[in-house]
């Protein structure tokens, strides 16, 4: 328990929560002693509103984002306050402002935070109406709160950004370790389907962490030159990416394992134990749970497991000469090579974490590094392009407007005290997708009830204002700390914060708890119903586009691998960017499929077929990455025209898939004699086998060529088989979806 608290206190989210609480409380205290409490509340409101858009990244974007939130907050506050004199005018203004503020989210994640700040201002403006010059005065107080928070953020900017990237790196290491363990768990046929789905989830989460880290670390490298901590973080990030991508590039053939001999399965289990120890070690490094004794003994333990696996593999190799035995021996050699490379990468991670020297960090070309960051399009055209019911954001905006206004009318009609809490619950809970809204609704209600119960117990025990102030500070800090980790717990602390703020102002704390729970349930019910009945956004509407993007990205990545095999030069930027875009496209597809599995049953049309498409595309990515990795780390012969024929044949299948999905007619490669390519590759392998048998002097060189031909041939045949299967599954999917 104490260890968990200590870990939480070191996180970026805790630092942010502490900063926001300190900024808000210091504003209230200063204004209370120098001016009046009303001013302090408005300044604190400004702090809370602007803090919602505070997320590290590009320094310029970070600052502009918070300034935009400040300006938007002032405009929203003034418009709501000035139109409050007329109910019809207020109703209309609220609807327009909710739509416009929500619509900003089309410009990406940071814009969605600015959007939330604006929506939060709209709701808070209903808390206390003002008139005349009071409106401008309180708008000025909100401005002061925003400026105060921005100044504090800039003051602690370097420390917070470093802490944020450290947290992301640890989370990335943890997810990568869990991904490795899920691959091992899938060896058991009973766990395979669940483990494969788990891998898809981890893949999406890892891609998101990679994207956030790229923006922070690559921008830092450009702006700050040689600061050690940033160079160290970049090197660690590169190693963790390598571990993840090398795992993907070495897929485990589960079908071969299922049909393998008993001895083969036993040796595979030995290798899996070594890999599991490597994953456990990476997980312990991520969570910093090693004590000195465990850390010292962990590497010798892994080395011992690898040695045992090698011995078992050698014994198996000498046990027979059957074709099955020969194929299984080759598979075991690949697995042993895989775990040894991963072990070296693990040791590199440990060295970086314990090192005081960062000279080994390679420089990144300033022009090239920007290509690895997904640039956000801020074109005004996006505003017009999304003005359609085909746009999930547009539908979400309409849905949000109607739901917020419904909550407002319900509050007015039933004369509910603090009815704006209904509106607040709606803007906090509602998301464009059904699944996210459903999850947040459940967690919000449970958290509010728990928070209300705890608050009631405290209120019955004491009425001491100092105790209330301390509880409010702690609850506000923890509500922000836990919002990403555990939304249910965060909602409980939010309830505690609100109850005790009101308890310090008014004596009816128990009534406040009752109203808080009632308003939350009403708001949550409205949000859930709206997401089901008002222009719902189901994943089946967008999954086809995600499949298209994943297929196109895989095709481009395969072409980059083909070009690299020909050129044999250092990896260029286009190869790396293509690989990154493929991982992102696959991550988006994984996430979309996962959300689809949680939607109502009648909306999960063709789920099994889509699952097969996702798994096939994931296998195709692994096969392409495997081919690319092999050509990078091994000295290979010149690529033949038959290699190109195979590559083009695979790309043809992918182009056929795209033609079916888009109903277009993309040009495919013509005059490809795949049978001739197959015959050539197999004849070459047999010829090299004969040379190795007859000429012992050239055995070593020939064996390397034999290994290359066998691996390249197997990978090409596997990729082509996957592409053909994908083409077949796409056809069946489209036939079923059209019924």
From TrEMBL:
TM segment ranges: 20-50, 62-82, 88-106, 135-159, 397-414, 420-437, 449-475, 487-505, 517-538
Protein name, UniProt field: Uncharacterized protein
Domain Integral membrane bound transporter per the UniProt entry, residue ranges: 408-528
Nucleotide-binding as UniProt keyword: no
Pfam families with a match to the protein in the record: FUSC-like, FUSC_2
Similarity section: Belongs to the YccS/YhfK family.
Main location: membrane
InterPro entries named among the record's database cross-references: Memb_transporter_dom (IPR049453), YccS_N (IPR032692)
GO CC aspect terms: plasma membrane
Membrane topology term: Multi-pass membrane protein
Keywords: Cell membrane, Membrane, Transmembrane, Transmembrane helix
Lineage per the UniProt record: Bacteria, Pseudomonadati, Bacteroidota, Flavobacteriia, Flavobacteriales
Domain of life of the source: Bacteria
Domain called Integral membrane protein YccS N-terminal: residue spans: 75-340
Subcellular location: Cell membrane
């Amino acid at each position: 328990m104490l260890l968990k608290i200590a870990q939480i206190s070191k996180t970026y989210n805790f630092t942010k929560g502490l900063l926001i609480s300190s900024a808000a409380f210091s504003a209230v205290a200063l204004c209370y002693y120098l001016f009046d409490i009303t001013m302090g509340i408005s300044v604190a409101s400004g702090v809370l509103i602007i803090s919602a858009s505070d997320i590290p990244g590009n320094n310029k974007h970070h600052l502009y984002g918070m300034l935009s939130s400040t300006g938007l907050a002032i405009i929203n506050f003034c418009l709501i306050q000035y139109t409050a004199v007329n109910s019809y005018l207020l109703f209309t203004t609220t609807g327009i402002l909710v739509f416009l503020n929500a619509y900003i989210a089309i410009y990406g994640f940071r814009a969605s935070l600015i959007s939330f700040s604006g929506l939060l201002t709209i709701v808070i403006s209903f808390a206390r109406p003002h008139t005349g010059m009071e409106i401008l005065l309180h708008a000025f107080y909100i401005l002061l709160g925003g400026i105060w928070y921005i100044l504090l953020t800039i003051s602690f900017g370097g420390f917070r950004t470093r802490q944020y990237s450290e947290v992301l790196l640890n989370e990335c290491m943890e997810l990568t370790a869990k991904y490795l363990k899920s691959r091992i768990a899938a060896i058991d046929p009973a766990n395979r389907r669940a483990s494969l789905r788990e891998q898809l989830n981890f893949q999406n989460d890892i891609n998101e962490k990679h994207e956030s880290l790229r923006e922070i670390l690559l921008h830092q490298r450009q702006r700050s030159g040689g600061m050690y901590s940033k160079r160290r973080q970049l090197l660690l990030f590169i190693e963790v990416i390598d571990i993840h991508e090398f795992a993907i590039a070495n897929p485990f053939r589960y079908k071969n394992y299922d049909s393998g001999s008993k001895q083969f399965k036993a040796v595979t289990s030995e290798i899996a134990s070594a890999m599991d120890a490597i994953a456990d070690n990476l997980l312990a490094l991520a969570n910093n749970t090693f004590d000195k004794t465990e850390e010292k003994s962990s590497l010798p333990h892994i080395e011992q497991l690898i040695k045992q696996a090698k011995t078992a593999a050698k014994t198996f190799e000498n046990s027979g000469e059957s074709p099955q035995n020969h194929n299984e021996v080759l598979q075991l050699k690949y697995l042993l090579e895989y775990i040894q490379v991963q072990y070296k990468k693990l040791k590199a991670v440990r060295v970086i974490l314990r090192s005081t020297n960062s000279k080994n960090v390679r420089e990144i070309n300033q022009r090239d590094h920007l290509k690895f960051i997904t640039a956000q399009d801020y074109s005004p055209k996006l505003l017009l392009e999304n003005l359609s019911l085909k746009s999930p954001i547009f539908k979400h905006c309409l849905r949000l407007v109607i739901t917020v206004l419904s909550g407002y009318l319900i509050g007015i009609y039933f004369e509910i005290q603090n009815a704006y809490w209904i509106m607040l619950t709606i803007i906090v809970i509602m998301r464009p997708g059904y699944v996210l809204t459903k999850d947040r609704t459940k967690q919000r209600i449970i958290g509010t009830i728990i928070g209300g119960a705890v608050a009631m117990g405290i209120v019955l025990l004491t009425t001491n204002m100092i105790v209330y102030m301390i509880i409010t500070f702690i609850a506000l800090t923890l509500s922000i700390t836990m919002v990403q980790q555990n939304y249910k717990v965060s909602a409980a602390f939010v309830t505690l914060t609100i109850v005790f703020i009101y308890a310090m102002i008014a004596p009816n704390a128990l009534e406040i708890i009752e109203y808080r729970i009632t308003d939350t349930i009403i708001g949550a019910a409205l949000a859930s119903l709206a997401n089901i009945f008002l222009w719902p956004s189901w994943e089946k509407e967008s999954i086809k586009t995600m499949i298209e993007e994943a297929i196109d990205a895989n095709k481009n990545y395969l072409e980059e691998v083909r070009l690299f095999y020909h050129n044999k030069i250092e990896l260029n930027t286009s190869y790396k960017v293509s690989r990154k875009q493929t991982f992102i496209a696959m991550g988006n597809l994984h996430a979309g499929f996962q959300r689809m599995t949680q939607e109502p049953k009648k909306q999960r049309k063709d789920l099994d077929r889509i699952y097969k498409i996702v798994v096939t595309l994931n296998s195709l990515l692994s096969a392409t990455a495997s081919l690319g990795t092999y050509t990078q780390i091994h000295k290979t012969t010149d690529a033949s025209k038959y290699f190109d024929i195979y590559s083009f044949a695979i790309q043809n299948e992918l182009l056929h898939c795209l033609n079916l999905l888009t109903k277009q007619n993309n040009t495919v490669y013509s005059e490809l004699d795949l049978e001739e390519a197959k015959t050539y590759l197999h004849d070459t392998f047999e010829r090299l086998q004969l040379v190795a048998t007859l000429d012992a002097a050239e055995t070593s060189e020939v064996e390397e060529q034999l290994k290359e031909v066998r691996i390249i041939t197997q990978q090409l045949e596997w990729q082509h088989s996957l592409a053909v299967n994908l083409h077949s599954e796409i056809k069946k999917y489209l036939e079923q979806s059209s019924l």
